[in-house]
Design a protein that fits this description.
Blueprint lengths: L14 E5 L11 H8 L3 E4 L2 H11 L6 E4 L5 H13 L3 E4 L13 H10 L3 E4 L4 H9 L6 E6 L4 H9 L7 E6 L4 H12 L3 E6 L7 E6 H7 L9 E5 L15
Parallel strand pairs: 1-4, 1-5, 2-3, 2-4, 6-7
Antiparallel strand pairs: 7-10, 8-9, 8-10
Bound molecules: S-adenosylmethionine.
Length: 248
């Protein structure tokens, strides 16, 4: 097992620093993430007002230059950010919450940096999917993170059908208003498997509903739950790995 190392100084020179930010609890921002935010020359973020609010909450001065980088301008904005990196700027990328690039903008810029030989530093931190996996109590040894469930019924049905024989625990992000349709589609494609719904993770009203796809559908049928949600579904029963403790 590797030992933790003493805090290393941030690498010198131009680089893209990707910083994960809290998904609810401000206390989850690490000292390293805070230092990276404080040291940004150029900040690329989804919603400039929201990120300014984060800086204020942390008592940090806003960076000299803040640029919008979101799902609707990602393709156009990424080359401009690459140019700033080539000019020697220290660019920090954040999303509204959690880890940039994971069901959030970021991939294009990371890909361009890789192609251009620009160093990338990732400051790890909050990410809703693994938290939901741990809260679920379902097998953790192998899992598939599917991102957002498609909104259109046909695409949603295919999204689950292609996992029908999956030997991995499935994780997906969903808006609570669409959960009923999503649970119905999952039930239809996968059968009634153990599942859980993690809600409002790291926030005051954090909770996790445990059951099966059918019992979860029944539990939310009256009123959709509030807040943000991650659905976790057990693997196909014959492919389900044994709990660690039962192995020889
Ligand atoms: N990049 C983020 C991350 O690292 O988790 C995900 C951003 S994605 C736009 C937003 C989705 O993530 C939500 O619809 C929900 O499915 C999930 N999510 C984010 N924060 C959450 C929270 N506090 N509790 C439960 N789910 C959350």
């Amino acid at each position: 097992m590797s030992e933790p190392e003493p805090e290393a100084a941030a690498p010198a020179g131009p680089r893209l620093t990707v910083v994960a930010t809290p998904i609810g609890n401000l206390g989850d921002l690490s000292p390293r993430a805070r230092a990276a935010l404080a040291g940004a020359e150029v900040l690329a973020c989804e919603d400039t007002r929201r990120t300014r609010g984060l800086y204020e909450a942390l008592g940090l001065a806003a960076p000299g230059r803040t640029l919008a980088y979101h799902e609707f301008n990602e393709a156009q904005a990424a080359p401009g950010l690459l140019k700033l990196l080539r000019e020697g700027r220290r660019v920090v990328l954040v999303s509204d919450a959690g880890t940039p690039g994971l069901s959030d903008p970021g991939y294009r810029l990371l890909n361009l940096c890789r192609g251009a030989g620009i160093p990338v530093e990732v400051v790890p931190g909050p990410h809703a999917a693994p938290l939901a996996l741990l809260m679920s109590g379902l097998p953790t040894s192998s899992y598939t993170f599917k991102g957002f469930v498609p909104r259109k019924p046909g695409a949603r049905a295919r999204f689950f059908a292609e996992e029908a024989a999956s030997r991995h625990t499935l994780l997906c992000y969903e808006n609570p208003l669409r959960l009923a349709a999503t649970l119905a589609a999952a039930l239809e494609a996968l059968g009634d498997r153990p599942a859980s719904l993690a809600l409002e993770l790291t926030k005051l009203h954090e909770r996790c509903l445990h059951g099966t796809l059918a019992t979860l559908a029944a539990a939310i049928s009256g009123e959709p739950p509030r807040g943000e949600a991650v659905l976790v579904i057990a693997p196909e029963p014959r492919g389900r790995p044994e709990p660690e403790g039962l192995r020889a």
